[in-house]
Write a structure and sequence with these properties.
This protein is of the alpha/beta class. Helix content is 45%, strand content 16%. It has eight helices and five strands. The chain has helices at 14-30, 40-45, 66-69, 89-100, 116-127, 135-151, 157-175, 177-184, and strands spanning 54-59, 77-82, 106-112, 189-195, 202-208. The chain has a five-stranded mixed beta sheet, sandwiched between helices. It is globular, with a radius of gyration of 17 Å. The two termini are 16 Å apart. The relative contact order is 0.16. It comes from Zafaria cholistanensis. It is an enzyme of class 4 (lyase).
């Protein structure tokens, strides 16, 4: 069964929102993208309001264009991006806005293989040499995930990416009372997913809430 592409966020459960994104990703992987909600009439209908059905908090990598890989269009997803999907106060505020004001039923933390930010953190952890400028701030925020991965015997970059996605989803729920309350109330789910650049496939690796 496929999800109704015209359904509004208030009509979608967290599980239905995730199904809708999975179906879009399947179309993208197979080369059969539908490119929904990308015409002039859709643009005009959104001029006064937005009603996204999911939030995608992902890495800033240019190969990780959320609307393309999930085959969605204008107004469908609320997107927040930082290198290595690093959390700061602005990110938390943006995600809380999506839940408290836009009533979005699903937050996805999206990482990807061969992530440069995670690779830089692994290198810093192994060599002790920190990168310059504010890149160091990114590395410092990712380091706890790398430490946990190495403690569990995971040393390859992609394994560290998975750990970092899992750690990020956990931190979102732990750090935000607004998000955790929405998860506990069944209104929102938070999941972590990793994206394979060559294949184009996104797969869930962690989750909080009813799916």
């Amino acid at each position: 069964m496929t999800t109704d592409l015209t359904a509004t966020p208030s009509q979608l459960t967290p599980a239905q929102a995730w199904r809708r994104l999975r179906e879009g990703n399947d179309r993208f992987v197979s080369g059969n993208s539908a490119h929904p909600n990308q015409d002039a009439s859709r643009r005009q209908s959104l001029a006064g309001q937005q009603n996204p059905f999911a939030v995608i908090f992902g890495c800033s990598d240019s190969r990780l264009a959320a609307e393309i890989i999930f085959d969605v269009g204008l107004g469908d997803v609320f997107v927040v991006r930082t290198a290595g999907h690093v959390i700061d106060d602005a990110v938390l505020g943006s995600l809380e806005y999506s839940v408290a004001v836009l009533n979005v039923p699903l937050i996805i933390v999206l990482g990807h293989d061969s992530c440069g930010a995670v690779s830089a953190t692994v290198d810093a952890f192994e060599t002790g040499a920190m990168p310059p400028g504010f890149i160091r701030d990114l590395v410092e925020r990712i380091t706890p995930s790398v430490i946990t991965a190495h403690r569990n015997g995971v040393q390859d970059v992609n394994g560290n990416v998975v750990e970092h996605v899992q750690q990020t989803t956990q931190r979102l729920v732990d750090a935000s009372k607004i998000i955790s309350a929405a998860v506990d109330g069944g209104r929102t789910a938070v999941i972590g997913a990793t994206y394979r650049l060559a294949e184009g496939k996104a797969e869930m690796v962690s989750g909080f809430g009813a799916l």
